[in-house]
Automatic annotation (TrEMBL):
This is Purine operon repressor PurR. GO terms for molecular function: DNA binding. Homodimer. InterPro entries: PRTase-like, PRTase_dom, Pur/Pyrimidine_PRTase, PuR_N, PurR_Bsub, WH-like_DNA-bd_sf, WH_DNA-bd_sf. Keywords: DNA-binding, Transcription, Transcription regulation. Belongs to the purine/pyrimidine phosphoribosyltransferase family. PurR subfamily. Residues 5-74 form the Bacterial purine repressor N-terminal domain. Pfam families: Pribosyltran, PuR_N. Residues 117-251 form the Phosphoribosyltransferase domain. It comes from Tumebacillus permanentifrigoris. It comes from the Bacteria. GO terms for biological process: negative regulation of DNA-templated transcription; negative regulation of purine nucleobase metabolic process.
Length: 271
């Protein structure tokens, strides 16, 4: 392989790092792949780290020693995160999005890849020290959020089903009261989660917290520890949720079906 120019090497290094968040990459292997000395790579990585931190996009963590490596830790600067939530609020603060039962139509916004990518990065940044080994969500609207979060944490994702599927094998089921005050059921295959692991729960919307509590109850059946709960939007009412210590990116602070007024403010993520 011909010697690579430094500018090209930095671009390739950045691409490799962004494609493998929270994964320790061997400096020796990257040096061989890019046909460069490790000392040159170390200088390049220092430049990349400085740019990432200056732009508020995360940082790089290095490990010293013969088997040393580097890991990209995703992040988002506070002002950029708040700007993102304000942009989302502008899209959602429309009276025609109000649905019967006190719900807000969000499917189109949560179908946009830029929204999902940024939300996943925010959740991964907030819970990066929690030690989650799996991201758990319940079908269906929370799945894209969970995928984005799991990607940036570099962990597998587990989907809890509304109905038991015969292809899932034996499963554990729990009944719970949903935000619409209906009795519903969720189930999870016994093979989905090893016992005594740690999970992060991700969902799109929280009103009273019934779904999140049911997920936490289901995790206890698997002897699994819930290390965090992240939701895209939570409602301000009721104040007393069925689950504590959740992190919401945005708060639905007002939704008046009579006047068709909607107000969304930054969530507990910014508290």
């Amino acid at each position: 392989m011909s010697k690579m120019r430094r500018s090209e090497r930095i671009v390739r290094l950045t691409q490799i790092l962004l494609e493998h968040p929270h994964r320790v990459l061997s400096l020796t292997e990257m040096a061989e792949k890019l046909a460069s000395a490790k000392s040159s790579l170390s200088e390049d990585l220092a430049i990349i780290r400085d740019v990432m931190e200056a732009e508020g996009l995360g940082t790089l963590e290095t490990q010293a020693g013969a088997a040393g490596g580097v890991r990209y830790v995703p992040g988002l600067r506070a002002d950029l995160a708040e700007q993102f939530v304000q942009q989302v609020a502008q899209r959602l603060c429309s009276g025609d999005r109000i649905l019967p039962g006190g719900f807000l139509y969000m499917s189109d916004v949560l179908g946009q890849t830029d929204v999902l990518d940024t939300a996943g990065k925010m959740f991964a940044s907030r819970f990066r020290e929690a030690g989650a080994e799996f991201v758990v969500t319940v079908e269906t609207k929370g799945i894209p959020l969970a995928v984005a979060t799991a990607k940036y944490l570099n962990v597998p994702m587990v989907i809890v089903r509304r109905d038991h599927k015969v292809t899932e094998g034996s499963s554990v089921s729990v009944n719970y009261v949903s935000g619409s005050r209906r009795i519903q059921t969720m189930s999870l295959s016994r093979r989905s989660l090893p016992e005594r692991t740690k999970v992060l729960i991700i969902d799109d919307f929280m009103k009273a917290g019934g779904t999140a509590k049911a997920l936490a109850d289901l995790m206890r059946e698997f002897q699994v520890e819930v290390v965090g709960v992240g939701v895209f939007i939570s409602t301000i009412d009721p104040l007393d949720k069925m689950i504590d210590n959740y992190v919401s990116l945005a708060t639905l602070s007002e939704m008046n079906e009579a006047t068709r007024e909607v107000a969304i403010t930054p969530g507990t993520y910014f508290a």
